Amino acid sequence: MSHGNVQTINRYRIPPHPHLSQPGLTYPSANTRRSQPEFQEKVIDSKEAVVLDCFATWCGPCKAIAPKVAEFSQNYPQAKFYQIDVDQMSEVAAELGIRAMPTFMLFKNGEKIQDVVGANPPALEAGIKSLIG
User: Fold this and answer.
1) Which residue, 19, 51, 71, 92, shows the most beta carbons closer than 10 Å to its own?
2) Residue 131 · residue 108 · CB < 8 Å
3) Span 115-131, pLDDT tens digits
4) pTM greater than 0.85 (yes/no)
5) Catalytic residue among 6, 62, 84, 98
6) H runs (alpha helix) in the chain
7) What backbone phi and psi angles, to 5 degrees, belong to 51?
8) Containing domain of residue 60, as a range?
């Protein structure tokens, strides 16, 4: 099972979701860090296309869409995929105006281009295609 190229902006590793086979990873991420400066660097200051997955560990729809996010991160290497746990990074989530999970924010050159709210793979994929197109 591929977990894609999604990185979590956070400082420490958290246990995997039950449906994943790789220990020490959040869906489908590898590096977990918690820091406002890293968010600024990876998302806001980036000159690349960025897909930001705003999730919560208790969120069922977040877990349900995780395999599709991993698939998209493999299929669209032109974009960088990151995720933030809204409970661990509540300050960033509040600044971004996150009100529902999952919320996917698409950025290009540090500017937010689009939000996709909810576990809606077709809408997310269309947004990614538009972002990198």
Assistant:
1) 51
2) yes
3) 999 999 999 999 999 99
4) no
5) 62
6) 36-39, 60-75, 90-96, 121-132
7) -110, 115
8) 6-132
Q: What does the block give as tokens for 42?
A: 């990876």
CATH number of the domain at 128, please. 3.40.30.10
The question of whether 59 is a catalytic residue gets the answer: yes
Q: Examine the residue annotation and report whether 54 is marked as an active-site residue of this protein.
A: no
Q: Tell me if 116 sits within 8 A of 130, measured CB to CB.
A: no
Q: Edge-to-edge strand order for the sheet containing 6-8?
A: 29-32, 6-8, 79-85, 49-55, 103-108, 111-117
Catalytically annotated residue among 20, 50, 52, 59: 59
User: Which pLDDT tens digit goes with each residue over 39-82?
Assistant: 888 898 999 999 999 999 999 999 999 999 999 999 999 999 99
Residue 92's H or E segment, with its range, is helix 90-96
How many distinct structural domains can be found in the chain?
1
Please name the helix (run of DSSP H) or strand (run of DSSP E) that holds residue 8, with its range, or none: strand 6-8
Q: Examine residue 84 and state whether it is found in any structural domain, yes or no.
A: yes
d(CA 74, CA 68): 10
